[in-house]
Amino acid sequence: MTEQREVHRSSRDPAQMQLRLERWLAGKLPDGAEPAIRDLRGTSATGMSSETLLFDAAWTEGGALREEPLVARIAPDTSDVPVFPSYDLERQAQVMRLVRDQTSVPVPRVWWSEPRAEAIGAPFFVMERVEGEVPPDVMPYNFGDSWLFHAPREDQQRLVDSTIAVLAELHTIDAAQDECRFLELDEPGGTVLQRHSAHVRAWYEFCSSNGDRSPLIERAFGWIDDHWPAEEGSTVVSWGDSRIGNVMYRDFRPVAVFDWEMAALGPRELDVAWLIYGHRCFEDMATFFELGGMPHLLRREDVASTYESLTGYTLRALDFFFVYTAVQWAIVFLRTGQRAIHFGDQERPSDVDEMLRNREPLEQMLDGTYWS
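Predicted structure:
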């Protein structure tokens, strides 16, 4: 692992982006609306998979001035070494509408979705901006200097329990309905998990197409093949990136759930394992840097027990799904390492696996010593 640092996310010009967004918005509103965009800015609190811009929009409506705080999620420029091979922002907006319509999960309202790149240079969608606090990724919230780290234990637990309840509520959507068919992955496979695995492997091939083959990731794929669960469990709408860093909280309860680009049909365990490991990975980093961390938060047995009590579903093959999750995190680290090299933030290591911030924990998982 290497030192955590501020990361580059985009090479786009904010001033040009503001002008182009204003022109686009004028085409979405009635004649005479005369929209203006103010205070456009990026955010570095979370995420690297797409670009997020915050701004205030004002326009004339019914003879009066209307003002709305908004957020634009924009597909990254291909020259910025994107994490994923493709970005279907229309699909992400469709997921958010589905979850908002069919559950009580607090998903921001999507105002507009623009699938074409002509307007601002990339596809994007615009959603309402919700006020609250997000556990930061940079620096990670458990490193000792965040609102969550300093909160009382009972408030931290309320945040955890209410986040698990989001997963339980999300998984009540009838995944067999026609409205969910767009979440089926196109890769080959006889089951949703097999297709999901093929999708992940195609993602790795994209990230390693420049020659950065990871012996550890490829070893892990072999482990996954050898430990495939005998029963895959029920199929649900999987959030895909179920981290507390993708949730906005107010009074330690979720008020907005973000980042649906990895959503797909899959077993419940995908989201439960990701929620646990997303925190555990940060805990491993805190240990590496000799920081106290928050080892009491999102413990494996606590999360599983709470989820099972809320849903009546018995989770299975969690060891498999933890490795499966850790492999995906390793692919993210491989790609963000390539991005850091691209922007000149770090030198290319002689060993590709040095770019994997979860290298040692993943090795321990494959050896069966991690959770002990």
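Summary: The first strand starts at residue 36 and ends at 42.
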